[in-house]
Amino acid sequence: MDPSSQPDPASNALVNTFFNWDLIAQTFPRLITEGLLNTLTIAAGAIVVGIVIALLAALLLLSHRWWIRLPARLYVDIFRGLPVIITVMLVGVGLPAAGIRPFGTEPFGYAILAIGIISGAYTAEIFRSGIQSVDPGQLQAARSLGLSYLKAMRLVVVPQGIRRVLPAMAGQFVKDIKESSLVYLLGLAAGQRELYFIAQEEVARTYNSSPLIAAGLCYLCLTIPLTYVVNHLDKRLREGPKGGNPPAVADADVPPTPVSATAGVQA
């Protein structure tokens, strides 16, 4: 027999280590029934917490008074500068050890809070840049109609700013989903384990990395569609719905009526 036709043992070992389909098939049911739900819960909770914090921080960052900007700037700089793993440990382990236990002894709430605090620091800068990109005339026009500053920001400026940064927000939401994998450090209880925790347990039990491939496929099924959905929404907001009335365009064959010719016609 030709030795070249023999399978390469190293190649077989590589495939078996990462693509053991029997082990992947055994891991998938638990990933789907427990890990996927918990990952979505942690990520969704963190996104909500992050958006609430980010809106407040972004408005503070836009203040003309330095002593109002300072706390928000410190928050953004610190939690953007710290590694995620340190923030997760400080919130999930440090707070309960210091006697601050808003969620009791359950690590699930601390996991959401930790990822939410990190998300808020990044999202605050996204919101700030979006709000600052809105023409200042929008705020001035709203104020001239009798709206207060806060009401004009809430009803006119902030919605426009958020719409302009939807793609960047989608990227941050994808980060929140991926960073939820670090909450395994908090020792989640049975039934609370997310995708990475379950895959890691299987790797420790089988000494095979195929469960990590299974978990990676689950993460991709969450992050890739989210990116395309938000990009599609952004495109719809920019271009308008299909079948809608196109913007009015003046007929090229009919010259526009001079303003001076019609001024004062209606008395």
TrEMBL record:
It comes from the Bacteria. The chain crosses the membrane at residues 40-62, 74-95, 211-230. Belongs to the binding-protein-dependent transport system permease family. HisMQ subfamily. CDD domains: TM_PBP2. InterPro entries: AA_ABC_transptr_permease_3TM, ArtM/GltK/GlnP/TcyL/YhdX-like, MetI-like, MetI-like_sf. Residues 240-267 are annotated as: Disordered. It holds the Pfam family BPD_transp_1. SUPFAM superfamilies: MetI-like. Residues 36-230 form the ABC transmembrane type-1 domain. This is Amino acid ABC transporter permease. Keywords: Amino-acid transport, Cell membrane, Membrane, Plasmid, Transmembrane, Transmembrane helix, Transport. It is found in: Cell membrane. Its main location: membrane. It is a multi-pass membrane protein.
